[in-house]
Amino acid sequence: MPAIRVFDILISLISLILLSPIIFIIMIICFRNTGRAFFYQKRVGRYKEPFILIKFPTMKIGTPSVATHLVNPNNVTPFGQFLRRYKLDEFPQLFNVIKGDMSLVGPRPCLFNQFELIQERSKRGIFDVRPGITGLAQIKGVDMSKPELLAKIEEEMIKKLNAKEYFLYIILTALGKGTGNRIKC
How far apart are CA 161 and CA 18, in angstroms? Predict the structure, then answer.
């Protein structure tokens, strides 16, 4: 849907401009806490192509590269907990959206070592779309701990995604819907 790509770019550019003071402050705090302003990680993108995801660092250096639900909570820094609680660690992904690696709305990009999730997504055509910063699974509070359920929700989202749903997911995410009680599927 070409209109969605235009919305992705416009909303991301406007958001980066408006959020630039906050992003700059978070960069400084992250650098002071972890020695780096950004965290880069290879993820599975559209058509299973690799891309480098950009986030603010929330974990101690040396933490294994695994799905968030598998990370020892003690590896998350105190500032990282704050960033995660309010989804501020996701702001740098707006650069991924502008670059074309991601969309604002789509399935969350997984790691290449999440074999079961990749298999479930492959069966359902999930990799035919750009991964997103938010989507139906995030609104519902579903994480990657149950790959089959997650892939089913993503498939449902992709089938009915239109401009109305796209903006609805963005608005619900901005309002904090689905960010509270996570469903550990």
Answer: 27
Decide if 125 is inside a domain.
Answer: yes
pTM for the full predicted model:
0.90
Rounded to whole angstroms, what are the CA distances from 146 to 48, 121, 153, 184? 20, 12, 11, 8
Please give the DSSP secondary-structure letter assigned to residue 59: B
Domain ranges, residue 158:
2-174
Task: Judge contact between 121 and 93, C-beta under 8 A.
Answer: no
CA-CA distance, 105 to 87, in Å (whole number)? 15
- Domain count for the chain, please give it: 1
Has residue 181 been placed in a domain? no
44-94 per-position pLDDT tens digit: 999 999 999 999 999 988 888 787 777 888 899 999 999 999 999 999 999
